[in-house]
Design a protein that fits this description.
The protein has about 170 residues and is of the alpha/beta class. The protein has one domain. It is built from three helices and six strands, in the order αββββββαα. The strands form two sheets. Strands 1-4-5-6 form a four-stranded mixed β-sheet, with helices on one face. A two-stranded antiparallel sheet has the order 2-3. The longest helix is centred in the first third of the chain and has 19 residues, at about 5-20. The protein is elongated.
């Protein structure tokens, strides 16, 4: 069992380590002085801000850039907006590792009206694995499909009409 002196020495060492780490974390907070209503034109919030009690920055603005970003154009780890770009992107048009877009989604896993990605799910889906009404991919499932096992003439005509036929051609 550690002695009181051992515990005291360990606490002092930990306090020094914490003090050294505090200098390494740098929060960035920038915000436009003008905007639309309560929404600033741009807002940047990156990193923790212990003074404000924030573990991660949440940017809210017409253009938002942050760990979490909410805006018309949102860029961040989790981006939410009309156009969203991030690790997890949700919006009308989404681009990201996991993209959830109402109109379009582009990313590693894309789910949306038009989905393009390694895995794609949507009305029109193009990807390594694709599921959709019109689907094209190495392995695809849907009503009209182009895949390694099946080539539907209507899907072929659809993807040719929208200049995506080259992506659907087997290699």
């Amino acid at each position: 069992m550690p002695t009181h002196e051992d515990l005291q020495r360990r606490v002092e060492e930990l306090e020094k380590e914490v003090a050294a780490l505090k200098g390494r974390t740098r929060a960035i907070r920038k915000r436009a002085s003008w905007g639309i209503g309560d929404l600033p034109f741009y807002h940047v919030a990156i990193g923790p801000d212990p003074g404000r009690g924030e573990v991660r920055g949440h940017a809210r603005g017409v253009i938002a850039i942050g760990d979490i970003a909410t805006g018309v154009l949102a860029i961040g780890g989790w981006a939410r907006g009309f156009v969203a770009v991030g690790g997890l992107a949700t919006g009308l048009l989404a681009v990201g590792g996991l993209a959830l877009g109402i109109l379009g989604a582009f990313g590693g896993l894309a789910i949306g009206g038009v989905a393009l990605g390694g895995g794609a799910v949507g009305g029109v889906a193009v990807g390594g694995g694709a599921v959709g009404y019109y689907a094209c991919g190495g392995d695809a499932a849907g009503e009209h499909v182009i895949s390694a096992r099946r080539r539907d003439p209507e899907a072929d005509a659809f993807f040719r009409e929208y200049a995506v036929a080259e992506a659907c051609r087997p290699r």
